[in-house]
Amino acid sequence: MTHLRIALTALALALIAGISQSADAGKSANAVKAPKPGSKAYAAMAKAYQASIAPVFEAKCFDCHSAKTHFPWYYRMPLAKSMIDLDIRKARKALDLNDGFPFTGVGTLADHLSALKDIAADGSMPPFRYTMIHWSAKLTKAEREMITAWVDGKLAPPPPPTKKK
Ligand code: HEC
């Protein structure tokens, strides 16, 4: 265990303690309408999610927004454990990505899409306390643009596989 790691962990824990000032649930600056289940737009959105968005979310969001957490080594420390558990509880309550599209968690699909558009715009997810340690979890500009396009129904689903002659 290096000193740097210990210092970063202490800093992260301090920041987790300030967790309540994170995302402001329910008040979206980017309210969007969701496509109706059964519609073409809905099916296209589900397909595009599976093909393009899900891999990003699995890599960068599932530690908190699903049941598939990779727990860090410091999870064994009592204080860290309770803070991480709380983080996951809050994250899954707001938006549970565990079972794919459509998501579960407080609110409607439109609420979830609006909140995703918000975080794609302001870069507030994953939280800084997380990306500080998991550097590669930060969303890239291209990923943020892709999420926005997807929420707006403008991300094309992958083309059907072409038949070989
Ligand atoms: C370190 C844990 C953690 C990670 C990783 C994380 N989140 Fe979150 N997220 C939270 C918590 C905690 C909340 C609930 C915030 C609250 O209640 O104040 C939340 C809330 C949200 C919300 C709802 C905000 C609202 O206004 O309702 C969205 C959308 C979201 N996260 C998207 C993401 C996406 C997308 C990723 C991956 C790119 C991600 N989060 C990664 C912890 C995390």
Name the shape in a single word.
elongated
What's the number of extended β-strand segments? 0
Biggest sheet features: none
Mean pLDDT: 89
- Return the structural class: mainly alpha
- In what range is the share of β-strand residues? under 5%
Low-confidence stretches: 19-23
How would you describe this structure to a colleague?
The structure is a single chain. Helix content is about 50%, strand content about 0%. It is built from seven helices and no strands. Helix 2 packs antiparallel against helix 7 and helix 5 (about 110-120) runs antiparallel to helix 7 (about 140-150). The chain is elongated. Heme C binds near residues 23 and 61.
What are its keywords?
165 residues; mainly alpha; binds heme C
Secondary structure elements and pairings:
Blueprint: H1 3-17, H2 40-60, H3 62-65, H4 78-94, H5 109-122, H6 128-131, H7 141-151
The chain binds heme C (HEC).
Structure at a glance:
This protein is mostly helical and 165 residues long. It is 52% helix and 0% strand.
